Amino acid sequence: MFHKVRFLVIIAGLFFIFTGGVHAQQSRELRVGTTVNGNLHMGDEIWYSVRPTGAGFLIVETTGDKDTYLEAYDASYNLIASDDDGGENYNARISLISEVGRTYLIKLRFLSESESGPYSIRASMGTIHDLRLDAWASRNFNAGEDHWFSVRSSGSGLMQVETSGDLDTYLEVYDSANKYITGDDDGGENYNARVSFFTEAGGTYIIKARCIGGAGFGPYRIRANMGAVSELRLNAWVPRNLGSGEEHWFSLRPAATGPLLIEASGNIETYLAVYNSSNVLIFENNSRLEFFAENGKTYFIKLFSPGGYESGSYNIRAIASSVSELRLGSWASGNLQGSEARWFNVRASAAGIMVVETSGSTDTYLRAYNASGNLINEDDDSGPDYNARMEIFTEANSVYIVQLTQLGGENSPYRVLASFETIPADAGNTTRARAVSVRPGEPVDVFLRSPNESRWYRYDASGRGTMLTVRTTGNMDTVLVLYDGQGRPIAENDDYEGNNNAYISETISSGTVYIEVKIFGGRMGRTTLNIDAWQRQ
Predict the structure, then answer these.
(1) Which of 71, 90, 214, 337 could staple 67 via S-S, CB 3.0–4.6 A?
(2) DSSP states of 232-289 as a string?
(3) Same domain, 277 and 234
């Protein structure tokens, strides 16, 4: 008999449960072109393995009157896709780009754990259609269908794919390695979709089209073309005229690492977004944005009208933002106008913790970058009132860049301070085997010195029926996990009662328990671990 092994995964502060690799021995075969019928009891799930019969895309879907949920994994149990109501009624439907000879694992369950009854599941293969540049292709959706297209870029630059018609369409873009690039719902006219992404010369891209809700059907058209990208040079205004529904793209390649300001002016309302060459959105804002750029890298700036219908002339430019020195222990002050930013460089002479914080009545936001331009920390309201406060683990003789902005306001005063403190020697307690002993009533400062690091502690209970409470205090978004003496999870908590700190309260037996402390989201920082214990009467 096989036992289910479950791991807890925290996503955006919520707990989700997925089932471990033991199910590889329990999966049933689901052959392409066949339908399998079965029954599920309350809370049950069932796994199927399916092997594509050729190139194209694989469709797995359920039928019946139950509200089903499907997940697709590769052979190493990496989640590829999931769906709730993509099929007819409340049925689930997954379609994914498939490779010949590769096995996919499908997990089926009812959406509600209290539901039970019959189900039907089917696997089939679909065709990927060739989409030629600059030519509309006409297709017809049946209810619940996905349509797949492949398109080959004519060069490096910007590709735009859009739909046309009366249907509410949705587009997703993947590269030739099945990696998701971008998606869009209503970026085109009416409820049509439009996506823009950056291509490599001769690269092949896969487009998935569907109707929102899965029940729409009827005719539509789809087209791909290579869009124009204008070069944006530093310190030079570029005049343009924006048509209704248009978006304009610019490329920028800075000659030095540092903060850049992109701004637009004119008689129309504009919105700006900046992307790196991997199609990752870096920053966006109305008509003015500042971001930290790296020397030699290419950035793409999108300009459009927020409503999509406004047209008129505008000017756009890029300039290097000024950077002021922020001396340790000295307040810097000034005023912020609307969305503008203030940039500071601050030098750490030794390894330790640098604390950067604001003071006053302005709702401030802080971001910290290392000398290579990597974002290492950011904060909104960790200080008093609406002030920002963040901690940076520093290396000796290193320079860090701090960006200060405000959330709202036109002409708002600010004060910002950087201070430094040394930290104790590293205890090396990053594994359970090296856990550090803690005692009730004695708070412990916990330093997470690298992303995704854990710190381990142990408590030795002296008798049965011990009530143990473990909690964190501070400004970091922490996660706590409590284990028994054999390392088996007892309890886990992320955000307690809407607070980013974690809290666990459990009755334990005599012996050793282990406490794992980590920061949600792979950050670095400091928190305080507090434990209390007493014998239950």
Answers:
(1) 90
(2) --BT--EEEEEPTT-EEEEEE--SSSEEEEEEEEESS--EEEEEETTS-EEEEEESEE
(3) yes
What is the per-residue pLDDT for 462? 80
Q: Are residues 376 and 393 in the same domain?
A: yes
Of 421, 446, 474, which residue constitutes the final position of a domain? 421
**What is the DSSP pairing of strand 342-348 with strand 323-325?**
parallel
- Asked whether the predicted pLDDT for residue 468 surpasses 50, the reply is yes
- Domain check: are 109 and 213 in the same one? no
Residue 520 backbone phi and psi in degrees, to 5: -65, 135
pLDDT of 400-443, one tens digit each?
A: 999 999 987 778 999 999 999 888 888 999 999 999 999 999 99
- Residue 426 forms part of a structural domain: no
Beta carbons of 217 and 141 less than 8 angstroms apart: yes
Token output for 323: 């950077």
Range of 237's domain? 229-320
Q: Which pTM was predicted?
A: 0.64
Number of independent structural domains in the chain: 5
Give the CATH number, domain containing residue 41: 2.60.120.380
Helix, strand, coil percentages (3-state) for the chain, rounded to 5, are: 0, 55, 40
Chain-wide mean pLDDT for the chain?
87
Tell me, yes or no, whether 427 lies in a domain: no
Which residues are CB-contacts of 499 (< 8 A; sequence separation ≥ 6)?
Answer: none
User: What does the pLDDT read at residue 6?
Assistant: 33
| Section 203-223 average pLDDT | 86
Residue 434 main-chain phi, psi, to 5 deg = -115, 25
Q: Assess whether 150 and 198 both reside in one domain.
A: yes
Give the closest residue to 402 by CA, choosing from 383, 414, 416: 416
Q: How confident is the model at residue 351 (pLDDT cuts 50, 70, 90)?
A: confident
**Is residue 25 helix, strand or coil?**
helix
- Domain check: are 83 and 143 in the same one? no
For residue 537, what are the contacts with CB-CB under 8 A and spacing of at least 6?
none
pLDDT value, residue 9: 35
Residue 83 is assigned to a structural domain of this protein? yes
| Block residue for tokens 């500042």 | 290
Q: Are residues 240 and 310 in the same domain?
A: yes
Confidence at residue 216, expressed as pLDDT on a 0 to 100 scale: 72
